[in-house]
Every structure is written in structure tokens, then in C-alpha cells.
Amino acid sequence: MRGVKLLCAAAVLATLPACSSLGAGEGIGNSYYALVRVRSIQVGDGSMAVTPPRPWNRARRVFFDDVRWVEDWTLNGPYLDGITFVAGLPNDKYLIRQRRSEERQVPRFRSDMTVPEITALLESAWRVRGGAIDFRTLALTPRPFLGTGGFQFDYEHLDTDELWRKGRAVGAIVNGRLYLIMYDGARSHYYNAALGDFEAIANSARLR
After folding, report:
1. Which of 7, 36, 75, 162 has the fewest CB atoms in 10 Å of its CB?
2. 41 vs 24: CA distance, rounded Å
3. Exposed (0-12), middle (13-18) or buried (19+): which is 85, by Cβ within 10 Å?
4. φ and ψ of 40, to 5 deg
5. Which residues contact 94 (CB under 8 A, 6 or more apart)?
6. Which residues pair with 164 in a beta bridge?
7. pLDDT digits (tens, 9 = 90+) for 38-49
8. For residue 161, with 0-12 CB atoms within 10 Å meaning exposed, 13-18 middle and 19 or more buried, which class applies?
9. 3-state secondary structure of 153
10. H or E element: which one contains 122?
11. How far apart are CA 56 and CA 62, in angstroms?
């Protein structure tokens, strides 16, 4: 989630002159990110592959012991936009890393969850770890994904930095595992600016 991404990014922002768009083919200038080129690429645990329509930036797993099924990309920096991939999250596993001693907990994923329960799980993650102080569901509709019946979840949230953000998640449970692609960006400009990229990526998703 972006709350975790912001913690990671905070460690490198002091040395990052600026977050730039990749329209000119240049990635964010810091070793925390790796350039994702326009080709088929495995995400998460490698069980899902996608093809971006233009270069993005992939967050390297160097600061925290990340959940191995989850991977984050950004175009202009994690404060402005990002895509989270969840590839094959198994039953009874957490979407994020959390300590048992923490008072507020994000529930585990269960393979028998209904779509509303999955969206409630995502909302919980945004509220507990993503910094959302107001979260609103805009739409929840069926959508084919990975060759099966999936869902599309549209939402928006106000965070502690007083910025409204908007998001879209497309996902499905396949063979008891959760596959999900979630896009989130500043509502004022960045969400619409890269929504086409998200749609292209989601439509390109394939299981390996």
C-alpha cells in the first residue's frame, strides 16, 4: 500500500532531485527504482506477467522484507501515482507485513472471500496502513480478468497529507489465490493522466 511505499520512499527522497515522468524514456533518478521497459514482465511472485504501454519505475525490494506476492510501480513518484500488483496471494496470508503487537490490523486474505469482502480488505489496508482518513466506494462491478470472472473496484480517499486520491482495482480469485492490479493517483491530475496505462496493463495480464 502507498503508506508503506511512502515510508520506503522517505529514505531516498532526500537524495532524489525530482520525480519525473517517463515520457522521455528516463526513469526516476535513484537506485531505489528500476526502469520497467515496454515488454512482458513478471510481477509479484512471478506467476503473473503484464506488458506496460510505456516505461514505468519498479520499486526495488531493499528497505523492508516485503510480502513476496506484492510489487509496486510508479510513474511520477509514490506521492503522485502508483500501481500495486498482487500475484497469487495464498489463503490465510496478509496483503501487507504487520506486527501482531499493532493495535489496528488488516485482515488476512481467505480464498472463500466474496468480492465485497475483498474490497473491504482493501479499504482496511488503506485506512490502517495507507493513511486514509476518509474512504469512499465509487463503483463495484463485474469485470473479466485473467480469463475468469473478476471484479472492478473504483474508490477515492482523503489522506493525512490532505490530498484526495482516486483508485481502481481489478482482480479475481484463481485456484484459491488472489490476483489483483490496483492503481492509485492524485485525483486532481495524475489519476486520469495514467489511467490509460493501467487499463492497458490490466488487459495485458496473463498467468504463467
Report:
1. 162
2. 20
3. buried
4. -65, 130
5. 67, 106, 108, 109
6. 158
7. 999 999 999 999
8. exposed
9. strand
10. helix 115-128
11. 18
